[in-house]
Every structure is written in structure tokens, then in C-alpha cells.
Write a structure and sequence with these properties.
Elements: H1 3-16, H2 25-42, E1 44-49, E2 54-59, E3 68-73, E4 91-93, E5 96-98, H3 106-118, E6 127-132, H4 140-144
Parallel strand pairs: 3-6
Antiparallel strand pairs: 1-2, 2-6, 4-5
Helix pairs in contact: 1-3
């Protein structure tokens, strides 16, 4: 595994480790804070919308209306640990990452950020990653956004 792959896997595991059930404002805020810190490290801007529940990540010099929006969310559904074969807050087993939100949508958030970072010199700066916080219930935050 090269350095960038290690960083991607590490950041996915860090985000997975934050429990963020729909309606868990503290867990959702912790996820958002982690994402903001990563975005800042990558040189992106972040801002909150929709009563502070929707997080936007975008390039610093994006003045135009975005042409691309990548829509994802940080909330997950509750689980009973006794029903989980793998750690619901993230683990690697047999070269696979397991955890609540790995596919829907914490893993894709990190992958989108790294993809946009790696393409920053090759693509138009007209994009946003739009991160909701209540998709697993009613996506009211996105309606406000």
C-alpha cells in the first residue's frame, strides 16, 4: 500500500469510527468537524448551509455556479452490535474495510475528497461535495439547502 492509499484507508477508518446515527447531532457534528479538518488540509473551503446541517466542500477559488455536485451523507442507521460480524465502527478484515457507512456514505465522502484533490490541476474548479446529515430518515436538511 502506498502513502496515498494508506491515507485514504486511514481517513475512512477515522470517519467510520464516529458513531453518527440519524438524529445524533453530536455524532454528526463530530463527522462534520473531521471532514472540515481534512478539507482544510487538502486546501479546500468548507461552509455550512440548511440550518448548519449541510456541509459543502469545494475548491477555494470557485466563483462560478458549480457544474458538478457530489451528494453524500454522514448519518447511519442504528445497529445492535450482537448482530454485527465485524466492528460497525470500522475494521479491516481480509483486505476489506467493514463498518457502518463504508458504502453508504462515509467511505464515498473520503473517496470523493481524495479524487477531487488528485484531480485539482486537471479539472474545472466548478464542483462541490454536498454532505447531508439526515438521509437515513427524512432528508429535511437537503430540502432546506
Amino acid at each position: 500500500m502506498n502513502k496515498e492509499q494508506f491515507s485514504i484507508v486511514s481517513d475512512i477508518l477515522k470517519l467510520l469510527s464516529i458513531q453518527s446515527f440519524t438524529g445524533d447531532e453530536l455524532g454528526i457534528r463530530k463527522c462534520q468537524e473531521f471532514i472540515v479538518a481534512l478539507a482544510t488540509k487538502m486546501g479546500f473551503c468548507s461552509s455550512f448551509h440548511g440550518s448548519g446541517k449541510v456541509l459543502i466542500i469545494e475548491p477555494k477559488h470557485n466563483k462560478a455556479i458549480p457544474k458538478l455536485g457530489i451528494v453524500v451523507h454522514v448519518d447511519t442507521v442504528p445497529y445492535e452490535e450482537k448482530n454485527c460480524k465485524h466492528n460497525p465502527l470500522g475494521e479491516i478484515s481480509e483486505s476489506r474495510i467493514y463498518g457502518r457507512g463504508i458504502i453508504d456514505d462515509k467511505g464515498p465522502i473520503i473517496l470523493a475528497m481524495y479524487a477531487m484533490y488528485s484531480l485539482r490541476e486537471e479539472i474545472d474548479n466548478s464542483w462541490q461535495i454536498i454532505i447531508g446529515s439526515s438521509e437515513e430518515d427524512e432528508w429535511i436538511d437537503m430540502e432546506e439547502f
